[in-house]
Write a structure and sequence with these properties.
single chain, 18 strands, 2 domains, 8-stranded antiparallel β-sheet, Immunoglobulin-like, 4 helices, mainly beta, Glucose Permease (Domain IIA), globular, 5-stranded mixed β-sheet
Protein backbone atom coordinates (compact mmCIF):
# COMPACT_ATOMS: atom_id res chain seq x y z
CA UNK A 1 0.00 0.00 0.00
CA UNK A 2 2.86 2.38 0.81
CA UNK A 3 4.32 1.79 -2.65
CA UNK A 4 0.95 2.46 -4.28
CA UNK A 5 0.61 5.76 -2.44
CA UNK A 6 4.06 6.87 -3.50
CA UNK A 7 3.41 5.90 -7.12
CA UNK A 8 0.19 7.91 -7.07
CA UNK A 9 2.11 10.91 -5.80
CA UNK A 10 4.51 10.65 -8.73
CA UNK A 11 1.67 10.56 -11.22
CA UNK A 12 0.05 13.65 -9.71
CA UNK A 13 3.10 15.68 -10.72
CA UNK A 14 2.23 15.18 -14.38
CA UNK A 15 -0.65 17.64 -14.08
CA UNK A 16 -0.26 20.97 -15.86
CA UNK A 17 1.96 23.13 -13.67
CA UNK A 18 0.86 26.59 -12.59
CA UNK A 19 2.02 29.41 -10.38
CA UNK A 20 1.90 28.38 -6.74
CA UNK A 21 -0.74 30.05 -4.66
CA UNK A 22 0.00 31.34 -1.18
CA UNK A 23 3.25 31.33 0.75
CA UNK A 24 5.14 28.09 0.46
CA UNK A 25 7.30 26.45 3.13
CA UNK A 26 10.88 27.64 3.54
CA UNK A 27 13.06 24.79 2.35
CA UNK A 28 16.36 23.61 3.68
CA UNK A 29 18.80 21.65 1.52
CA UNK A 30 17.58 18.03 1.60
CA UNK A 31 21.07 16.48 1.66
CA UNK A 32 23.88 16.48 4.21
CA UNK A 33 26.34 18.12 1.83
CA UNK A 34 27.56 21.44 0.47
CA UNK A 35 26.68 22.14 -3.16
CA UNK A 36 29.86 22.81 -5.10
CA UNK A 37 32.00 20.86 -2.66
CA UNK A 38 30.70 17.33 -2.12
CA UNK A 39 27.46 17.46 -4.13
CA UNK A 40 26.07 19.22 -7.18
CA UNK A 41 22.79 19.94 -8.98
CA UNK A 42 22.54 17.87 -12.12
CA UNK A 43 19.04 18.91 -13.22
CA UNK A 44 16.55 21.66 -12.41
CA UNK A 45 12.80 21.73 -13.16
CA UNK A 46 11.96 21.95 -16.87
CA UNK A 47 10.10 25.23 -17.44
CA UNK A 48 9.58 24.84 -21.19
CA UNK A 49 5.97 23.77 -21.86
CA UNK A 50 6.86 22.40 -25.28
CA UNK A 51 9.19 19.64 -26.47
CA UNK A 52 12.31 21.61 -25.51
CA UNK A 53 13.84 22.03 -22.07
CA UNK A 54 14.81 25.16 -20.12
CA UNK A 55 15.72 25.62 -16.46
CA UNK A 56 14.61 28.63 -14.41
CA UNK A 57 17.51 30.72 -15.76
CA UNK A 58 16.65 29.75 -19.36
CA UNK A 59 19.67 27.46 -19.43
CA UNK A 60 19.70 23.79 -20.38
CA UNK A 61 20.58 22.18 -17.03
CA UNK A 62 17.43 20.04 -17.23
CA UNK A 63 15.65 17.76 -19.70
CA UNK A 64 12.23 17.68 -21.29
CA UNK A 65 9.50 17.06 -18.73
CA UNK A 66 11.77 16.96 -15.66
CA UNK A 67 9.64 17.58 -12.58
CA UNK A 68 12.11 18.21 -9.78
CA UNK A 69 15.63 19.08 -8.65
CA UNK A 70 18.29 16.37 -8.89
CA UNK A 71 21.05 16.79 -6.29
CA UNK A 72 23.87 14.33 -6.90
CA UNK A 73 26.76 13.11 -4.80
CA UNK A 74 30.16 12.46 -6.36
CA UNK A 75 30.54 8.70 -6.51
CA UNK A 76 28.99 5.34 -5.71
CA UNK A 77 31.64 5.02 -2.98
CA UNK A 78 30.08 8.10 -1.32
CA UNK A 79 26.69 6.43 -1.58
CA UNK A 80 28.01 3.30 0.11
CA UNK A 81 29.59 5.34 2.91
CA UNK A 82 26.22 7.03 3.40
CA UNK A 83 24.99 10.59 2.79
CA UNK A 84 21.90 11.56 4.78
CA UNK A 85 18.68 12.83 3.21
CA UNK A 86 16.92 15.51 5.26
CA UNK A 87 13.32 16.72 5.43
CA UNK A 88 13.36 20.08 3.63
CA UNK A 89 10.53 21.47 5.79
CA UNK A 90 8.37 20.39 8.76
CA UNK A 91 5.40 18.20 8.01
CA UNK A 92 3.82 14.76 8.23
CA UNK A 93 5.00 11.65 6.36
CA UNK A 94 2.12 10.40 4.21
CA UNK A 95 3.86 7.68 2.16
CA UNK A 96 7.14 5.77 1.95
CA UNK A 97 8.73 3.03 -0.11
CA UNK A 98 11.84 0.97 0.61
CA UNK A 99 13.39 -2.28 -0.60
CA UNK A 100 14.20 -1.45 -4.23
CA UNK A 101 17.74 -2.18 -5.42
CA UNK A 102 20.33 0.53 -6.08
CA UNK A 103 21.03 -0.37 -9.70
CA UNK A 104 21.68 2.09 -12.52
CA UNK A 105 18.57 2.34 -14.69
CA UNK A 106 18.81 1.21 -18.30
CA UNK A 107 16.54 -0.06 -21.06
CA UNK A 108 17.39 -3.59 -19.93
CA UNK A 109 15.85 -3.15 -16.46
CA UNK A 110 13.19 -0.54 -17.26
CA UNK A 111 10.30 -2.98 -16.83
CA UNK A 112 11.40 -3.79 -13.27
CA UNK A 113 10.93 -0.18 -12.15
CA UNK A 114 7.91 0.68 -14.30
CA UNK A 115 5.35 2.46 -12.12
CA UNK A 116 7.96 2.79 -9.38
CA UNK A 117 10.34 5.21 -11.09
CA UNK A 118 10.76 7.20 -7.86
CA UNK A 119 12.44 4.18 -6.32
CA UNK A 120 12.75 4.20 -2.55
CA UNK A 121 11.34 7.46 -1.26
CA UNK A 122 9.36 9.57 1.15
CA UNK A 123 6.39 11.89 0.63
CA UNK A 124 5.81 14.65 3.21
CA UNK A 125 2.72 16.85 3.47
CA UNK A 126 3.18 20.39 4.75
CA UNK A 127 0.68 23.10 5.65
CA UNK A 128 -1.62 24.85 3.16
CA UNK A 129 -1.61 22.14 0.50
CA UNK A 130 2.14 21.85 0.01
CA UNK A 131 4.16 18.63 -0.24
CA UNK A 132 7.71 17.52 -0.93
CA UNK A 133 8.83 14.19 -2.31
CA UNK A 134 12.28 12.56 -2.09
CA UNK A 135 13.18 9.85 -4.62
CA UNK A 136 15.97 7.32 -5.39
CA UNK A 137 16.98 6.72 -1.77
CA UNK A 138 19.23 3.82 -0.77
CA UNK A 139 17.65 0.43 -0.17
CA UNK A 140 17.01 -0.27 3.49
CA UNK A 141 17.78 3.30 4.56
CA UNK A 142 14.33 4.90 4.98
CA UNK A 143 13.98 5.72 8.67
CA UNK A 144 10.51 7.32 8.88
CA UNK A 145 7.00 5.87 8.78
CA UNK A 146 3.60 7.00 7.57
CA UNK A 147 1.96 9.35 10.07
CA UNK A 148 5.26 10.43 11.63
CA UNK A 149 5.77 14.16 12.12
CA UNK A 150 9.18 15.48 11.06
CA UNK A 151 10.99 18.78 11.44
CA UNK A 152 13.21 20.52 8.92
CA UNK A 153 16.58 18.76 8.98
CA UNK A 154 15.32 15.44 10.35
CA UNK A 155 16.92 12.42 8.69
CA UNK A 156 14.67 10.54 6.27
CA UNK A 157 17.25 8.03 5.01
CA UNK A 158 20.30 7.95 2.72
CA UNK A 159 21.08 8.96 -0.85
CA UNK A 160 20.80 6.04 -3.25
CA UNK A 161 20.29 5.04 -6.87
CA UNK A 162 16.99 3.15 -6.80
CA UNK A 163 14.21 3.42 -9.34
CA UNK A 164 14.82 5.33 -12.58
CA UNK A 165 18.25 6.67 -11.66
CA UNK A 166 21.60 6.43 -13.42
CA UNK A 167 23.78 8.05 -10.74
CA UNK A 168 23.48 8.44 -6.94
CA UNK A 169 21.25 11.41 -6.17
CA UNK A 170 18.01 12.57 -4.62
CA UNK A 171 15.22 13.90 -6.80
CA UNK A 172 13.25 16.53 -4.85
CA UNK A 173 9.79 17.41 -6.13
CA UNK A 174 7.75 20.27 -4.67
CA UNK A 175 4.02 20.54 -5.27
CA UNK A 176 1.18 22.83 -4.19
CA UNK A 177 -2.30 21.33 -4.31
CA UNK A 178 -0.99 18.66 -6.67
CA UNK A 179 0.68 21.07 -9.08
CA UNK A 180 4.41 21.20 -9.72
CA UNK A 181 6.37 24.12 -8.26
CA UNK A 182 9.97 25.10 -9.01
CA UNK A 183 11.68 25.81 -5.66
CA UNK A 184 14.12 28.19 -7.39
CA UNK A 185 11.27 30.39 -8.66
CA UNK A 186 8.00 29.56 -6.97
CA UNK A 187 6.19 32.81 -7.71
CA UNK A 188 6.37 32.79 -11.51
CA UNK A 189 4.36 30.63 -13.94
CA UNK A 190 6.19 27.45 -14.90
CA UNK A 191 5.57 28.13 -18.59
CA UNK A 192 8.50 30.54 -18.76
CA UNK A 193 12.00 31.20 -17.48
CA UNK A 194 14.34 34.04 -16.53
CA UNK A 195 11.66 35.74 -14.44
CA UNK A 196 13.66 36.00 -11.18
CA UNK A 197 10.71 35.15 -8.96
CA UNK A 198 10.79 34.27 -5.28
CA UNK A 199 12.57 31.02 -4.34
CA UNK A 200 11.33 28.70 -1.60
CA UNK A 201 14.81 28.08 -0.18
CA UNK A 202 15.81 29.54 3.14
CA UNK A 203 18.21 32.39 2.45
CA UNK A 204 21.23 30.55 3.85
CA UNK A 205 20.21 27.25 2.20
CA UNK A 206 19.69 28.38 -1.40
CA UNK A 207 22.12 26.27 -3.46
CA UNK A 208 22.07 28.81 -6.30
CA UNK A 209 22.46 28.16 -10.00
CA UNK A 210 25.34 26.30 -11.61
CA UNK A 211 24.88 25.50 -15.33
CA UNK A 212 27.59 22.81 -15.33
CA UNK A 213 30.84 22.04 -13.59
CA UNK A 214 33.40 19.58 -12.31
CA UNK A 215 32.37 16.74 -10.01
CA UNK A 216 35.82 15.54 -9.01
CA UNK A 217 39.31 15.09 -10.47
CA UNK A 218 42.21 12.78 -9.72
CA UNK A 219 45.46 11.13 -10.77
CA UNK A 220 45.98 7.63 -12.11
CA UNK A 221 48.66 5.57 -13.83
CA UNK A 222 46.42 4.93 -16.86
CA UNK A 223 43.26 6.24 -18.43
CA UNK A 224 40.65 4.77 -16.08
CA UNK A 225 37.46 3.02 -17.10
CA UNK A 226 34.37 5.20 -16.85
CA UNK A 227 32.81 2.75 -14.40
CA UNK A 228 35.85 3.18 -12.12
CA UNK A 229 35.44 6.96 -12.26
CA UNK A 230 31.74 6.78 -11.36
CA UNK A 231 32.43 4.26 -8.62
CA UNK A 232 35.08 6.50 -7.05
CA UNK A 233 37.90 3.95 -7.33
CA UNK A 234 39.99 5.58 -10.07
CA UNK A 235 42.04 8.20 -8.17
CA UNK A 236 45.46 7.45 -6.65
CA UNK A 237 46.84 9.47 -3.74
CA UNK A 238 50.37 8.28 -4.44
CA UNK A 239 52.18 6.80 -7.42
CA UNK A 240 55.18 4.54 -7.77
CA UNK A 241 58.28 6.24 -9.22
CA UNK A 242 58.31 3.67 -12.05
CA UNK A 243 54.60 4.02 -12.93
CA UNK A 244 54.17 3.64 -16.67
CA UNK A 245 52.23 6.90 -17.02
CA UNK A 246 51.05 9.96 -15.15
CA UNK A 247 47.38 10.61 -15.95
CA UNK A 248 45.09 13.44 -14.82
CA UNK A 249 41.32 12.82 -15.22
CA UNK A 250 38.21 14.79 -14.43
CA UNK A 251 34.54 13.85 -14.03
CA UNK A 252 32.05 16.61 -14.87
CA UNK A 253 28.38 17.40 -15.43
CA UNK A 254 26.24 19.40 -17.86
CA UNK A 255 28.92 19.84 -20.49
CA UNK A 256 27.98 21.76 -23.63
CA UNK A 257 29.35 21.53 -27.13
CA UNK A 258 32.23 23.98 -27.41
CA UNK A 259 33.21 23.83 -23.73
CA UNK A 260 36.96 23.65 -23.19
CA UNK A 261 38.50 21.59 -20.38
CA UNK A 262 41.96 22.94 -19.58
CA UNK A 263 44.13 20.28 -17.91
CA UNK A 264 47.63 20.83 -16.55
CA UNK A 265 50.08 18.82 -14.45
CA UNK A 266 52.91 20.49 -12.53
CA UNK A 267 55.60 18.41 -10.81
CA UNK A 268 58.58 19.02 -8.53
CA UNK A 269 60.69 19.98 -11.54
CA UNK A 270 58.11 22.18 -13.28
CA UNK A 271 55.32 21.68 -15.81
CA UNK A 272 54.79 18.10 -16.93
CA UNK A 273 52.05 18.80 -19.47
CA UNK A 274 49.30 21.24 -20.40
CA UNK A 275 46.47 20.26 -22.73
CA UNK A 276 43.05 21.59 -23.68
CA UNK A 277 40.17 19.22 -24.45
CA UNK A 278 37.24 20.45 -26.56
CA UNK A 279 33.77 18.99 -25.99
CA UNK A 280 32.24 18.07 -29.32
CA UNK A 281 28.67 17.48 -28.05
CA UNK A 282 26.39 18.15 -25.08
CA UNK A 283 26.81 15.58 -22.31
CA UNK A 284 24.92 15.35 -19.03
CA UNK A 285 27.92 13.60 -17.43
CA UNK A 286 31.35 12.81 -18.86
CA UNK A 287 34.99 12.30 -18.03
CA UNK A 288 38.18 13.27 -19.80
CA UNK A 289 41.81 12.34 -19.20
CA UNK A 290 45.26 13.47 -20.35
CA UNK A 291 48.62 12.01 -19.49
CA UNK A 292 52.29 11.49 -20.19
CA UNK A 293 54.17 8.21 -20.47
CA UNK A 294 57.30 7.58 -18.43
CA UNK A 295 60.32 8.36 -20.64
CA UNK A 296 63.11 8.35 -18.06
CA UNK A 297 64.05 5.70 -15.51
CA UNK A 298 61.63 7.11 -12.93
CA UNK A 299 59.40 10.05 -12.10
CA UNK A 300 61.08 12.72 -9.94
CA UNK A 301 60.06 12.30 -6.30
CA UNK A 302 57.75 14.91 -4.80
CA UNK A 303 54.31 16.44 -5.16
CA UNK A 304 52.40 16.63 -8.44
CA UNK A 305 49.52 19.08 -8.80
CA UNK A 306 46.71 18.70 -11.30
CA UNK A 307 44.70 21.76 -12.30
CA UNK A 308 41.45 21.40 -14.23
CA UNK A 309 39.47 24.41 -15.51
CA UNK A 310 36.11 24.15 -17.28
CA UNK A 311 35.59 27.04 -19.71
CA UNK A 312 32.42 28.05 -21.54
CA UNK A 313 32.35 30.81 -24.14
CA UNK A 314 35.64 32.16 -22.82
CA UNK A 315 34.42 32.26 -19.20
CA UNK A 316 35.66 30.10 -16.35
CA UNK A 317 32.80 27.91 -15.17
CA UNK A 318 34.62 25.78 -12.59
CA UNK A 319 38.11 24.94 -11.36
CA UNK A 320 39.65 22.12 -9.30
CA UNK A 321 43.12 21.26 -8.04
CA UNK A 322 44.25 17.81 -6.92
CA UNK A 323 47.58 16.45 -5.77
CA UNK A 324 49.41 13.15 -5.70
CA UNK A 325 52.89 12.21 -4.53
CA UNK A 326 55.73 10.15 -5.94
CA UNK A 327 57.98 8.81 -3.20
Amino acid sequence: MRGALLAAAVLSASAVAATAGGEGPELGLPLDCTVGEDCYIQHYVDRDPGPGARDFRCGTATYDGHKGTDIGIHTIADMIRGVRVFAAAPGVVVATRDGMEDVAWSAANAERVKGRECGNGVLIRHENGWETQYCHMRRGSVTVKKGERVNRGDTLGLVGMSGKAQFPHVHLSVRHEGRLVDPFDASSPLAGCGQNGKPLWQEDQNPGYVPGGLIYSGFSTRIPDYEEVKAGSAARRSLAPVAGALVLFTYAFDGKRGDVIEMRIDGPEGQVLSQNVLLEKDQAQFFRAVGKRLRAARWPAGTYTGTVVMMREGRELDRQQVVTTVE
